[in-house]
Amino acid sequence: MSTTIAVLRGFNRTYTQRIGVLDESFLGTGRALAVSRLLFEIGSRHHTTVRDLREQLGLDSGHVARMLRSLEGEGLVETAPDPDDGRRRLVRLTQDGRKAWRELDERSEALAAQLVDPLTTRQQERLAEALATADLLVRAATVQLREVAPGDPVAREATARYFDELDERFPAGFDPGGPEEPQPGTTSVVATSDGRPVAHGGLRPLPDLDHVTAEVKRMWVDPGWRGAGLGARMLRHLEALARDRGFTRVVLDTNDSLLEAIALYERAGYRRIGRYNDNPYARAWFEKGLGQIQTEG
Amino acid sequence: MSTTIAVLRGFNRTYTQRIGVLDESFLGTGRALAVSRLLFEIGSRHHTTVRDLREQLGLDSGHVARMLRSLEGEGLVETAPDPDDGRRRLVRLTQDGRKAWRELDERSEALAAQLVDPLTTRQQERLAEALATADLLVRAATVQLREVAPGDPVAREATARYFDELDERFPAGFDPGGPEEPQPGTTSVVATSDGRPVAHGGLRPLPDLDHVTAEVKRMWVDPGWRGAGLGARMLRHLEALARDRGFTRVVLDTNDSLLEAIALYERAGYRRIGRYNDNPYARAWFEKGLGQIQTEG
DNA sequence: GAGGTTATCTGACTAAAGTCAGACGTTGTG
DNA sequence: CACAACGTCTGACTTTAGTCAGATAACCTC
């Protein structure tokens, strides 16, 4: 849709002219803009390292170090070596820093309030709805899918959240059965945003079988990120991966209480088949041939 | 709605991290970011003056002058005195400048395309719709209403567009009857965006009457700006103005083919009354008492 | 046509942002 | 335990951005 691009660019213009000034809440505090931004970022996280900040804000390491010295000089932040890794330094706000952060937060809040003030309640609701939709879609569009080692901490976090959700949703609960033991040949694909997993999918050769069938495991999308096609994207990604590895067929199992998942599989061209494993939690089984070529960026 | 503010601020965060990079299309051209922005702005307008650019981009006059010298040095822009006012200088792109502008435009387009690429067509449509809504509401929220002298060029442009629209919409056309002659006591309120009128409303004492009734005239909202409450805002503004001047009642006339206008007046608390003037184009007459206090920012 | 205003420009700055090389200690690997 | 890789820091820059005080010419008003 080329019109989407035009609308996006048009909005970009409106945004920089009218909402971009929200950043001005960081001005006039006697600190440089970049320093204020850094302060705000530190306060917006529980605890963070210099590296995280550098990455998040896309700044040079020397630049960040200098700004941190400046904030330390003001008595707003303090740093300490990370006990887990002595190379890293943890950064956090002091009491005064928290106060300065709150001031920034309030300024920003006030500016935002002023911006929407001329609108009626009804219009504000429409605006909030539109922005929430745009927010979700833009975040989903810019998320990167990447393969990680089976024992990767991000993958662990994702599967832990997946199991928690199953436990909540299954009428009789869910027990993964013993601690995680990465199975050989398994691949984990995660989508991360700001370092935290927002979607996960696993792929492994279906054991004791024909070498042409792969199984999709542990498909999960963070509840806050649903409705933006992340599940479908993950599925396409896994299928492409399976195809690259010479598989010609994908199967998966699921539970009938996971309605969205079933709808997703059906939309993606999966067909119901009979039970192919002895997974006690499975109630539905699907397959899809990997004949035709599909694309996934 | 405090949630609107939260959503707006959340979106702001997503935006600066993910869409803000659209500006990076201005980087890596061997020119400073601000210079590229200026070049892009010049090329986005038909012809423009130094003053317009300064105002649009919110820059210091010395800064702009220097950047223009730099662009002239590259052979990308040329300036000439404005024949209408020798103090001003017109700025426009040269052949080479147009080429450089096109390059920037293409980079920006490509970045935007890349951003939305992971989304399905359906999701892109949802995104475009959400952004278009947000765009309209944000623009409407940040537009300023201001009183102008009756002969002001902006007011003239607005009424000219209003008359054109009436001429188009009335089955038998519309003839304003002779050239504009500003009537004594008339006030014009305009909403402008980037210097062009997007809404207009007039107010005058109702002639030969009681000195307590004001008449709203020439209510008009640019078609591209409808649906964001600008009409209602204008009406509230005019009512506040009338109240300030001691009027206790407002009347207005309209034509029954202007359905949105009639709906607007009814929503705003206007009641139909009998004909109070001999306007040949009027088919409906309304009044509203200015008893209770309402607010308009 | 005198006097104030407006638009643009130059010179002379300061502050902020960003870059790069290298030092130093910590950690993971073979 | 040697060695490469990593995370952070300092020093020594360069580039950009932005500011302010005039100078100059054109315009507007009375």
TrEMBL record, chains A, B:
It is an enzyme of class 2 (transferase). SMART domains: HTH_MARR. Residues 171-191 are annotated as: Disordered. Coiled coil: none annotated. Pfam families: Acetyltransf_1 (PF00583), HTH_27 (PF13463). Residues 1-136 form the HTH marR-type domain. GO terms for molecular function: acyltransferase activity. InterPro entries: Acyl_CoA_acyltransferase, ArsR-like_HTH, Bact_Acetyltransf, GNAT_dom, HTH_MarR-typ, WH-like_DNA-bd_sf, WH_DNA-bd_sf. Its EC number is 2.3.1.-. Keywords: Acyltransferase, Transferase. This is GNAT family N-acetyltransferase. It comes from Nocardioides vastitatis. The lineage of its organism: Bacteria, Bacillati, Actinomycetota, Actinomycetes, Propionibacteriales.
